[in-house]
Specification:
By secondary structure, the protein is mainly alpha-helical. The protein has three helices and two strands; from the N terminus they run H-H-E-E-H. The chain has two domains: 32 residues; 58 residues.
């Protein structure tokens, strides 16, 4: 049992060492991006989604139930996306 643990630990260390160089390079790339740029990309992404939801045709953003009631989903989507934008702007 002890040999199995030693073998699996050695195997895990070998695999980790193989990926360590690539991981360090990717970490360097991520640290090179300023936080304000990353934040701005996310805010722009959600603003584009808001624009897209606004431009969707009415039949794509309504849900007709069996009892004849119609639910308009656009306000819920806009509220959710707007809340995300506000959270990103505040924090």
């Amino acid at each position: 049992m002890n040999n199995v643990l030693l073998t699996s630990t050695a195997l895990a260390d070998t695999i980790a060492n193989l990926f360590r160089g690539v991981g360090d390079i990717m970490r360097g790339w991520m640290l090179a991006i300023p936080m304000s740029v990353a934040k701005g990309v996310f805010i722009v992404y959600f603003l584009i989604l808001i624009y897209w939801v606004i431009k969707l045709p009415e039949n794509e953003v309504t849900l007709a139930l069996d009892n004849g009631k119609v639910i308009h989903l656009r306000p819920f989507a806009l509220f959710s996306l707007g809340t995300i934008v506000v959270i990103y702007l505040v924090f």
